[in-house]
Specification:
mainly alpha; Four Helix Bundle (Hemerythrin (Met), subunit A); 3 domains; two-stranded antiparallel sheet; two-stranded parallel sheet; 18 helices
């Protein structure tokens, strides 16, 4: 069976030969490399995986565990890749290392565990969906690592990858196929599309990076404290910096945000959050739609999203018919799924 240059039967035969020579096992690398073949699509990949599954061929990830040494290596690679990453690290206070440390605590599914969960998922078990997602959350990290320094921040890539992973899990219904293999292909293709065309993206000059990080930090602090957008004058006063310098940095940051999001609308330097809020609304809807229903409800109620009134954990627990402790655990689980 051939699809415009991609012969499924031929690929199935070649992969089967390699698998049989390796104890009926294939590396996930086979699927990430397949993503480079532009003729492949979801339908052909699902069909290929179904054929491989019928031969009891399983996939495994040949990657180093996320121990502290490995986490430090990735964190340093990210920071050394470009000034944008160094600025993000300064603002986010080692968010890469913190996130990777949290992911490292999650168990990685074996192929047999994955298959069991897929059968449970087919029966409508929502807990199985959460286990499948959490046991696969190493995949977005593994994929995003290859695209460090390609125009999009590492954690932004991971977050997009988490959304892809959740959507894939919700729409995967073949227990005999490898979900990890399908997710690996889909993540690789997504990262390719996200980073395409970013070679000429606006870069932050070295001399601006530290000042920009301080301005963004002060902007966030004042916004949280006062509940409104701070003026350039207010930010400048808190940093002992000139108003002109703050305005310049805000303008530059807005240009960078616009380029990174491929947004062609003008962004006002006097109100840098306006455009971000508009984009955030669309992004939040996309993120919530990828979460399991209860997690999405909790996040919407906790943060007053999608027309919901902000509620405390106790109020949410009562609304969802669970204990406050269970609601807190559900929130942590949802935030982990979102890459936060």
């Amino acid at each position: 069976m051939k699809k415009e240059g991609f012969d499924i039967d031929e690929k199935f035969a070649s992969l089967t030969v390699r698998a049989k020579a390796n104890g009926d096992m294939l590396e996930l690398r086979e699927m990430t490399e397949l993503a480079n073949c532009k003729e492949t699509d979801e339908k052909s990949v699902r069909e290929l995986l179904s054929l491989l599954g019928s031969e009891d061929i399983v996939f495994y990830a040949d990657v180093r565990p996320l121990d502290q040494k490995r986490i430090k290596e990735i964190d340093e690679t990210v920071k050394n890749s470009c000034e944008e990453e160094r600025t993000a690290a300064a603002v986010g206070e080692n968010s890469v290392r913190l996130y990777l440390s949290e992911i490292a605590q999650l168990p990685v599914l074996t192929s047999s565990q994955e298959r069991e969960l897929l059968y449970e998922l087919k029966d409508g078990n929502e807990d199985a969906l959460n286990e499948l997602i959490e046991g696969s959350m190493y995949l977005p990290v593994m994929t995003a690592e290859k695209y460090i320094g390609r125009g999009i921040l590492f954690l932004d890539l991971v977050q997009e990858g988490n959304l892809v992973l959740m959507t894939a899990a919700q729409n995967f219904s073949d227990p005999k196929s490898s979900f990890a293999a399908f997710a690996a292909w889909k993540l690789e293709r997504t990262m390719q599309e996200l980073t395409a065309g970013h070679e000429d993206i606006l870069k932050i000059p070295v001399e601006m990076a530290e000042d920009m990080a301080n301005v963004v930090k002060e902007y966030k602090r004042l916004s949280a404290e006062n509940g409104k957008i701070p003026s350039a004058e207010t930010i400048a006063a808190g940093l002992d910096m000139s108003v002109d310098r703050v305005s310049e940095l805000l303008t530059y940051e807005n240009k960078l945000t616009k380029d990174n999001s491929k947004n062609t609308e003008e962004i006002s330097a006097s109100s840098p959050a306006d455009e971000a809020d508009r984009r955030l609304s669309d992004k939040v809807k996309e993120m919530l739609s990828a979460l399991p229903e209860k997690e999405a409800q909790l996040i919407a109620m906790k943060y007053g999203i999608a027309g919901k009134k902000e509620m405390s954990i106790a109020e949410i627990a009562d609304k969802l018919g669970m204990t406050a402790e269970d609601a807190e655990k559900l929130e942590q689980q949802a935030m982990r799924h979102l890459g936060c």
